[in-house]
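so my prof wants the structure for this chain in the tokens format not the other one, which i didnt know existed until like an hour ago. anyway here's the sequence
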Amino acid sequence: MQTESENTNRSNFSSRFALAAMLGLAALLLPAAAHADGNAEAEAEAEADIFQTWDDPIEDLLAEVNENYALEGKFDINFRIRFENVHDQGAGGAGKFGNGHATTGRLRLGYTSADYEGFSFRVDMEEVFSTDDSKYNDTLSGNIAFPVIADPEGTELNQLYGQFQKDGFLVRVGRQRIILDDARFVGNVGWRQDEQTFDAAMAGYTGSDELEGFKAHYSYIDKVNRIFAEGTDFTDSDSHIINVSYSGLEIGTITGFVYLLDFTGSGAAGAAVVNSNTYGFRFAGQYDVDEENTLNYVGSYAYQDQAGVAKAFEANYYLVDLSVTHKPYGVTAGGGYEVLGSDGGAYGFATPLATLHKFNGWADRFLVTPATGLEDVYVYVAGTLPWEVKGKIIYHYFFSEFGNAEVGSELNIVLKKKLSDNVSVLSKFAYYLSDSPGAAGVGADVNKFWMQIEFKY
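here's what i got, hopefully its the right format
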């Protein structure tokens, strides 16, 4: 059993490690910005010229195909390769780390038709593959002795929809991508190789001269095509998505939303557990403090009821995020407090259609909200490093909402470089340190590392 002094030492180490990492990145960001007119900028421009003037054969071929065969529409290609390495104490058993790694790729081929009297259609296929699927658990392979890397192999119809768009109105029917606001409640989980899409009928309004700044979205979702391949899709959905926003205020955009989710008939295990009705609002905006500094702010609240298999639970959600952008240096620093509430320790506020990897740490320890809920206190700094490398570092500290117990902490770091209009590279790291080491699930330490190259045409 973990002693109080051992817990204190781990907590102190975590705090020191996070503080040192943040100070280190800040030390890199500030000199980079301060010398933006010096050698760093010259070197970045010289490097960019090399890639921008590179004769890309795929780009040339696609341009020829679109010119001669696309019937005034457009073909597109997205291809990325990723290496992911995971050390997960929860997968090793008996306090040991389970080690896993995967090199996976995704090829997506798409076509968007030309517009005819407001009518058009979109289709894209995706293929997810692995060089060796024996060293990780893709959630379908049965390799349960290895950590989860949720990129199962497979070929899928990613999108196929027809739409009508005119005078700010949009009607779309078919398999489609839906991303609302910051994807906290509805998103496409774009980080994973197999994207989440929806079989849905959607009607939207994107604004006009008469109603400038007003947007509305309604979707009826019949099926959720999840990231774990077809076997875990929510095949029988009776769900309604409503999102309305107004951006005409000087101080920001206000959004109201209602998400009524019912997956009772779906064959996927646990689908009915995430039934719920959610009602909430979100406010986001910016304020120029002076010529050099901008204050950014986001606030959100939601109430959830009729949740779970018996539709008997309820819980609340809160978010406050404040940051300051120093424009001359291009550096943003801030922090936030997010709460996914609990119903007496029996149910945690759930957002099953969200891009969950984006929130509460990239180690993915909280893809399913604990029954005791979750409080996430976090700080971050982001900016541009030498050679136009985009960097960001985030530190989280987690508590249970019910009982206010310390759960753990996490450090996230990402670096991304755009090599050309079509090619980018990324390196990413997540380190979760539990306050209850050795336990299963959220109580297990984990660290993850990714390297990726992506081509978009």
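also thought this was worth mentioning. DSSP finds three helices and 18 strands in the chain.
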